[in-house]
Amino acid sequence: MSASEAKVLSIGPLPENEAAWIKLSKVTYRDPNGQTRTWESAERRTRPTTSDVDGVGIVALLHTPAGPEIILQKQYRPPIDRISIEVPAGLIDAGETAEQAAVRELREETGYVGVVTETSPIMFNDPGFCNTNLRMIHVSIDPSLPENQNPQPQLEENEFIEVFTAPLATLWDECKKLEAEGYAIDARVGTLAEGVEFAKTLKL
Amino acid sequence: MSASEAKVLSIGPLPENEAAWIKLSKVTYRDPNGQTRTWESAERRTRPTTSDVDGVGIVALLHTPAGPEIILQKQYRPPIDRISIEVPAGLIDAGETAEQAAVRELREETGYVGVVTETSPIMFNDPGFCNTNLRMIHVSIDPSLPENQNPQPQLEENEFIEVFTAPLATLWDECKKLEAEGYAIDARVGTLAEGVEFAKTLKL
């Protein structure tokens, strides 16, 4: 198996009655001037009715003597036909809190066991285009604990994820390097790195 | 006019033959094990054929004596039926570079004239769901210049954007405050703030 073998073979229209995961909606709305207009929106079909959030992104930090390392993943993504650099993430199951989903997904996708330290506001991925959103959950991992000595992901048979780490302090340079190597940068990773870089450069 | 008057009136299915801006695609791909699978993807119809990027997000910093302020916008977004807190942004016109689009959109949406200082890698908004992407363009604004004394946005008649600024150093707290006030936080703003906060807290 190699993620670099993955490849789009063909792309075609997806008829409404064949779509199981996503859909297009026509939104009729009143604009700030009181005029009625329409907007086109894309949505997931999977958001639990009990939740206002689709999923979680996990900022999992390994606290090493050299400084914090962020856990990242390489994953082939058919919509972009590229291997994407992402934080661990997942959809929230019905009945689960965002924090429970984060701890579960982190363990399943990376094998690491961590403790939630912060929950972000709900962040909207592209609110002019779609309604998908997530909370970023911060998870602290103590690499000296027995359960983190030999982390073993438990992936489903259609999940192909390669886990790696990068120093948080130099993540912006790492993103540029990874793009130059042909990887796609997920917005959460890129923008987080951008914030770190601004704070360092501008001495905030 | 008031953005808080805007409201979704109804949401219904959007038939393929009525969709002008977005579409669903069925992606047939070979997975890393060599098996053929399908994936459902949402896409914009507007990406210029000459470009591999949909748009730009603009991190525009006003350099004030008290420190850098980031330019933000409040904008009603029908897909989420909320007023969203976003960086200035826009689609790239055919024949335009990302940097040209950033300077143009910043001037149109906020009235400010600035200088491009950095271009990010391409960032993918939600690569398990859609192919939409952007580059983040950093723009530096000198508020002492004559052209920035009384910035006047030039909005189209269906654009309703309120411009404001926030100190970059405390953007994370500002995001939490804005969410508590009922605003939706765009992922670019929230994750950038998160990176700044990590760098400050962890002394990166």
UniProtKB/TrEMBL annotation, chains A, B:
Q: Which PANTHER family does this chain map to? A: ADP-SUGAR PYROPHOSPHATASE (PTHR11839:SF1), UDP/ADP-SUGAR PYROPHOSPHATASE (PTHR11839)
Q: Which InterPro entries match?
A: Nudix_hydrolase (IPR020476), NUDIX_hydrolase-like_dom_sf (IPR015797), NUDIX_hydrolase_CS (IPR020084), NUDIX_hydrolase_dom (IPR000086)
Official protein name in the record: ADP-ribose pyrophosphatase
Q: Which keywords has UniProt assigned to this entry?
A: Hydrolase
- Pfam families to which the protein is assigned, alphabetical: NUDIX
Source organism of the structure: Sodiomyces alkalinus (strain CBS 110278 / VKM F-3762 / F11) (Alkaliphilic filamentous fungus)
Record family assignment: Belongs to the Nudix hydrolase family.
Q: Which GO terms describe its biological process?
A: nucleoside phosphate metabolic process; ribose phosphate metabolic process
GO MF annotation terms: ADP-ribose diphosphatase activity
Q: Which residues form the Nudix hydrolase domain?
A: 51-188
Q: Which GO terms describe its cellular component?
A: cytosol; nucleus
